[in-house]
Amino acid sequence: MVRAVPGKEVPSVPFDIRARVLRAMRWSALVVVPIIAIPAAMSGVSTQAPPRTVTALAVAVKTPAPATGNAKTACIYTHNSISKMVQIGTRIGRPFQCASVYDSNSTWQDWENPWFAHAQIHDNQWAQWVEANPRVRRLIIGLSMIPNSVISADWRSRGATGAYDGYIRTLGRNLVQTGLGSSVIRLGFEANGNWNVDNVGKTNSDFAHWRAYWARFVRVMRSVPGAHFTFDWNLNSAYRNIPLAEIYPGDSVVDVIGVDVYDTAGPRLPAAPSPARWAAIARQPDGVAAILAFAHRHHKPFSVPEWGLISSPGGGGGDDSTFVAAIAALMRNNMVAFETYFDRPSVGGTLAIQNSRHSFAAYAHDFGRASEFGVNTARRS
């Protein structure tokens, strides 16, 4: 995907959400659908709280920090626009205190001096937005492990042995100095895909070097004075036949385990709107259920750093309120740090939530002021 940054285009390896098809692989019997089930009767927007089909994976912390622990923080990506985020928050009756952005990955200079830390356009001044209420507001930063312009065949092994430590340390200092030292870092996001240049690779050697570099990257960033970053190990749902343990950097460096999921993936999905459609999406090999179970086994909070609706022509379920309700149930019934709706229309067929009537009603119900649930629920932001 090409993600636009104010004043310029950010080079990135394009991806097409429609191409995220199911890859054959044995699905673990350890995970069952009720972990993330939604009520079978929910075909539209329910006015009743969905039944709690399972117990939460962990006891909620008393005062969850934004986007960490079991905070269940509602975040949004609005293609870098603060005003659009505010508009959507106003419509659902609950202002967003958490937003998603993506760093530039063209050169080391751009990479270590993030555009959102010094944007000139008022609508893109995310550092100032955080600074206005730093105890509450949080950025989720999609960060490449290396710029496109310096990619080489051995970049993973070079990173693992410290070749890029200086750049990483400078990035950490710059984030801390601009008040973003408590951000969530989606390091090497969607690592199991093949559309980003910093993916895990193809061989066992690639996997080992990638894991080692990811872990080293975190240790270097944590060493920066004033740094309080949260690191999210973020995969794409149901893509590639890679055992999760082979690409997991380790409990000591991973704070949150996340999965990106859209209302599409794989052939022969039940038609929308239908809870059966979500069940089919979630049960795919290395899909939501499998990665959630992996997070549980490692005692890590879960996250959904990207989720969204996909148009029918784009292979998705269109205005599918049951998909929205399923994400809310996933948040409600498990130890989840945060979720982010990817609100950038036309990218891979994605739909704007505010322009999808039935889904927006469900979104406002479960993530906005209208929600009936308690403090530690999907609507917390």
List keywords for this structure.
single chain, 381 residues, alpha/beta, TIM Barrel, two-stranded antiparallel sheet, 10 helices
Please, could you describe this protein's structure?
By secondary structure, the chain is an alpha/beta fold. The chain has one domain: Glycosidases (TIM Barrel). It has helices at residues 82-92, 108-112, 126-131, 155-160, 165-177, 204-222, 275-282, 288-297, 321-333, 357-367; strands at 3-5, 8-10, 73-77, 98-102, 138-143, 184-187, 230-236, 256-262, 302-308, 336-342. The strands form 2 sheets. It has an 8-stranded parallel beta sheet with strand order 3-10-9-8-7-6-5-4. A two-stranded antiparallel ribbon has the order 1-2. Helix 6 links the parallel strand 6 and strand 7 (230-236). Helix 5 (165-177) crosses helix 6 (204-222) and helix 9 (321-333) packs parallel to helix 10. Residues 1-64 and 372-381 have low confidence and may be disordered.
CATH C-level class is Alpha Beta
Question: Helical content, roughly?
Answer: 25-40%
Widest β-sheet, arrangement of strands: 3-10-9-8-7-6-5-4
Radius of gyration: 19 Å
CATH topology: TIM Barrel
Based on Cα principal axes, name the global outline.
globular
Number of domains: 1
Global structural class: alpha/beta
Name the CATH superfamily classification. Glycosidases
Q: What is the residue-mean pLDDT, rounded to a whole number?
A: 82
| Number of beta-strand segments | 10
> What is the chain-wise order of helices and strands?
EEEHEHHEHHEHEEHHEHEH
In the predicted model, the low-confidence regions spanning at least 5 consecutive residues are 1-64, 372-381
